[in-house]
Structure formats: C-alpha cells, structure tokens
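Input chain follows. Return structure tokens only.
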Amino acid sequence: MLMARLCFDYGHGGEDSGACYKGRKESNDVLSLGRAVAVEVRNHGITVNETRTNDSTISLRERSNFENRNAYDYFISFHRNAFEPEKAKGVETYTYLNPGAKSKGLAAGLQSALAALGFVNRGVKSANFHVLRETKSPSVLVEIGFIDSTGDNNLFDKKRNEIIKVLAKAILARVGVVYIEPSAPKIGRA
C-alpha cells in the first residue's frame, strides 16, 4: 500500500512577514508550528514536502509550482489571521470556490479540531486564493487564530502542543492513518 504524500505550505516568509502584531510575525508562527505538525505526521510514515523550511521569500507562483511538480493527497497552507487589533478572534479554514469532497472533509476536520481547543469557530469558508486555485491536489488554507488578538495568541502559545497534535490527528484521519500517542520516556529510579 502506498503511503500518503502531503504538501505543507507555511504562509509568507523572508521579505513578506505576513500579519504582524506586537513583535510577532505570522511567517515565524506558521513556520514553527507547521514544521512541528510535519514532524508529527512523518512519525506516522507519511511523506510531507514543504514549500519552505526556513524564513525565506517564496512567491505564490513558486508555491503552486512546487505543489504541481508532484502528486499529493493534500496541500495544506498554514496561516494566522489579522483584522484590526483586538477586534476579531477565532479559527477559519478555507477551500477553493468549488471544493471537492476531499478538500471539504479535511477543512471540516481541521476546523472542528482547532475549535475544540477553545478557539472561536468561524467556520469553513471558500475563497479564490492563489494557493487553493492553482494547486492540483485537494487543498485547504487554515487560519490558526488572529495574530492581532491577545486571546488567540495566548491560546496559540499555551496550547501549542495540543494544536500540533489535533492538526496531525485530523490530517492523518483523512489519509486513513490512526494517530498514535508518542510514548513518554521511562524515568529510571536511582
């Protein structure tokens, strides 16, 4: 049986920091979190290719071209939202305007997993975003809280490990792999 192949895209990077608030950069938050999710998913035997692995500038066209060079089960773009300082909060997941069942299913799974951690559930939405429109595989873009919301940033930081786990779990469920808890290291007695 062939194992699933995923393409992870961490929004922005390099010269494009994405949304910023009180010294936080969207590009750094999503790179750090997304790479941790990739490690977790890889630990379950899944191949994950990443559009960037450091703080580098990558155009939207380069991101979609990267995805189009291979066949993937899913393309997942990680982002943090922004509106006006302290005026909006919550998570939302986007699919393209006419999503297939696979995109819709993954979006619903990611959305409910994040909302269960205490983020306001802003729902699954559709949008004409380049990375959703120009990629071949079922694609979603997930906005993991508002970077200009202190409450969302507190959730993002305090529940980081749980966010990584629930995202990995939701992604693995879509490719038919059961999430296995990492075993805790045994502590010897002196």
